[in-house]
Amino acid sequence: MDLVPALEEPLKQPLKSVLGPATAKVMAEHLGLHSVGDLLHHYPRRYEERGQLTHLADLPMDEHVTVVAQVADARLHTFASAKAPRGKGQRLEVTITDGSGRLQLVFFGHGVHKPHKELLPGTRAMFAGKVSVFNRRLQLAHPAYELLHGDSEETVETWAGALIPIYPATAKLESWKIGKAVQTVLPSAQEALDPLPETLREGRGLLPLPEALLKIHRPHTKADIAGARDRLKWDEAFVLQVALARRRHADTQLPAVPRTPRPDGILAAFDDRLPFTLTEGQRKVSKEIFDDLATDHPMHRLLQGEVGSGKTMVALRAMLAVVDAGGQAAMLAPTEVLAQQHHRSITEMMGELAEGGMLGGAEHATKVVLLTGSMGAAARRRALLDLATGEAGLVIGTHALIEDRIQFQDLGLVVVDEQHRFGVEQRDALRGKGKQPPHLLVMTATPIPRTVAMTVFGDLETSVLDQLPAGRSPIASHVVPAADKPHFLARAWERVREEVTGGHQAYVVCPRIGDEEDDPKKAGRKKSAEDEAEKRPPLAVLDVAGQLSGGPLQGLRVEVLHGRMHPDDKDAVMRRFAAGETDVLVATTVIEVGVNVPNATAMVIMDADRFGVSQLHQLRGRVGRGAAPGLCLLVTEMPEASAARQRLNAVASTLDGFELSRIDLEQRREGDVLGQAQSGARSSLRVLAVIEDEEVIAEAREEAASLVAANPDLEHLPGLRTALTALLDEEREQYLEKG
């Protein structure tokens, strides 16, 4: 929630600024705060207690910190330097303590006079600056500070509460300056329009908004903070859920062509030729999708599934149902490798049913065309003609499908694979290809915790495939600490050899390709001892493939695959690997999604700490796809106590993608998750934490759904309408419009 009308007064005005023009400028440029309302919604990150000092012992390196401490001693030194050759240079060294540790402050030159007079032993103050190391001791150079004695009226007034709010700050603007600015505008909080309907607020015992704003910025007790946060969390959750509920409601008002499969059509013929039975989960999710397709408003469904749970099979059956009903279906894949792979596996699964218009094609057959950016002109022309005439019922392609020139005869269903790789605009452009809005099925193999799905994809109905098809094998995962125990790495290559000797194949994954220029500035930028492993550039496909061929995997057939190869070369490499003509494929993450080679049983991920949790889970899903068990080895040089190692241990300890996505989210800020989904828009969440506040989000969703069902126009709720306008600034408005 950003703006409230009474609070729309800009902080910086030509004639009369609410704050000093310099402060207002920094707030706008560095914190994105432009109005009184913005500033009131810039909540404290934490609070210092008067009697309880920050632990200096726990200060993080290279971060801007605010500490409350007492001056232990202060010494003025003179020295000679280039600027002051006669020994007239001055350096003030002040030691502060909080009982747990000590910290050195240094001031130089003309900057020593004021602190020399003010920072006397025994003085207590707030200090802010960037923590650095000098002579192996932590120090703050030229910190800004605010004295905490109560002799001047203003200081007493400003710090009247027992709790000192510490605000998210920047190097240009310290926390207490933000605090002073907030105190200046705090009286305006009385005019804040409340977005929550009164019945909801009173029914849940939540504070009125003006009171919550007052208590979060100027609390007297910890109970004040808790009450204010509870209230402000509800604002964020509820306003977002109302936006999504209105979006769902609007979708139900749109017209779409119902698509019902014929009992004796291509879907029935396809099911008859399946060599296996569908899992219970696949049947259940297919029913949900078929029910949606049969309605006269567009389906918007998110299909989540564990790696290898058979999402493509479910999507293909939905596409065939639409072909049965006389329409066309398009599947959008994020990469050419994946589009080609989908095209190959779908035509194989369909057999003669994919040979529409050809000799030997089955009675109900249709054409399945592939459309990618690198196709030759003649093949492309044929594909475009098949789409325009309706000859092709199914099309699989990359974003090349979205180009203006491409016309469908009757687009009934769009399937988007790996949602997070596609911009909202791209999905929207494809949906615009239908005469009426087509149905939309979004597939993701990155499991999303329920709360994130509700917060980010709340406008989509969600189906989850959580059981693996019969015949899938378990995957054993182990961390290989290459720096601590080099013999473990040697053993890893022996294991790869054993798998190949047993008639299987292996992947080796590296973070980069290796023919790019290394940036000398990037190497060794981090200073802490634990980050030694980070100082060298990440391992590269081209280097590792050469080392393996001439070393531990000598004699095996090793090939490389990466994103900068020509598409035909990539396809040829994948075909050889799928046919078993290659033993070991050394690749980048181009193999992350959709690559399906059941005979590949082992994967070694080099520099595994350079990948995210979800990405590691995705990569690991490429093995164990056949009858033989899978093995995934996570190679790292990070030390045992590091956060990176803990992350890898978590991946090795569970195969549950939903559990891993929670771990991933707890380690990152959910703003990353929301930002990614919200087309780069700034995350609207300030106090709501997606994982911790599961109950609030679920309850807010229910409240929002019943409110919008009864009152879609939100009549008599001006506060809620205003909050929605603020949440859905132009960029987000488009995001929600496009979905």
Describe the structure.
The chain has a seven-stranded parallel β-sheet, sandwiched between helices. A six-stranded parallel β-sheet has the order 16-21-20-17-19-18, with helices on both faces. The longest helix has 32 residues, at 222-253. It starts with 20 loop residues before the first helix and ends with a helix. Helix 8 (222-253) crosses helix 24, helix 9 packs antiparallel against helix 11 and helix 15 (450-456) packs parallel to helix 24. With 739 residues, it is of the alpha/beta class. The protein has 26 helices and 21 strands. Helix 14 links the parallel strand 13 (411-417) and strand 14. Mean pLDDT is 81; it is low at 1-5, 152-161, 517-531, 671-683 and 733-739.
Name the average pLDDT.
81
Name the poorly predicted regions: 1-5, 152-161, 517-531, 671-683, 733-739
- Indicate the percent of residues in helices: 25-40%
Distance between the termini: 20 Å
Question: What is the strand content?
Answer: 15-25%
Radius of gyration: 30 Å
SS-based structural class?
Answer: alpha/beta
What sort of overall outline do the alpha carbons produce when their principal axes are compared? Answer: globular
Care to count the β-strands?
A: 21
Largest sheet: 7 strands, parallel
The spatial strand order of the largest sheet comes to 11-12-10-13-14-9-15
Please, how many helices? 26
